[in-house]
Specification:
single chain
């Protein structure tokens, strides 16, 4: 357990969702650092840690990671459902997989005109979820996983380029309109 205290003390703090700020470490460095201090079970969970939950619900061995995947899966279902309804398409996503609050988050995100702003909105929501479900014990394995998820979200936001994104968005949109003519 003392190794875990040493690991957590080496992880630099960051809290804001600001893609203009340079990240204190990379995901690659984070994973390498964790590989030196976490036990085998935690390393196995860490190796599967992702922003994208597995389609099939499978326990990971971490209550925190399981809860993250459950909420992220629900958000993705809600986004798919709202998009499908907007396009007047049928969806096999049941109401039970999407709570009213998550459906409202999805509606708000889909309703934003700018796709980058929608992504920023969703990532702020995701950061809030991580903060909400993070363990109180800052030196637990789950706290290390929460740090990793926040870092992955921040790295993802740093990859966004507004000009390239808008060009791609318009290209896809024009292609869709071309197919419907």
């Amino acid at each position: 357990m003392s190794e875990q205290y040493y690991l957590v003390s080496q992880l630099p703090a960051f809290s804001e969702v600001d893609e203009n700020k340079k990240l204190p470490i990379t995901e690659e460095y984070y994973r390498e650092l964790c590989s030196r201090f976490l036990d085998e079970k935690s390393l196995e969970i860490l190796s599967g840690l992702s922003l994208v939950p597995p389609r099939k619900v499978t326990p990971t061995g971490s209550d925190f990671v399981d809860e993250w995947y459950k909420r992220e899966r629900s958000l993705r279902f809600a986004l798919a459902r709202v998009r499908a309804l907007r396009m007047n398409k049928d969806t096999d996503i049941s109401e039970s997989s999407c709570t009213a609050d998550i459906l409202q988050i999805a509606r708000t995100a889909i309703g934003l005109e700018n796709p980058l702003e929608a992504e920023r909105f969703l990532n702020k929501y995701r950061m809030d979820i991580i903060s909400t479900i993070s363990p109180l014990d800052e030196f637990s394995s789950d706290a290390v996983f929460a740090y990793g998820l926040r870092l992955m979200l921040m790295e993802r936001m740093h990859k966004f380029d507004e000009e390239k994104g808008m060009a791609s968005y318009h290209q896809i949109y024009d292609r869709i309109l071309g197919e419907n003519k």
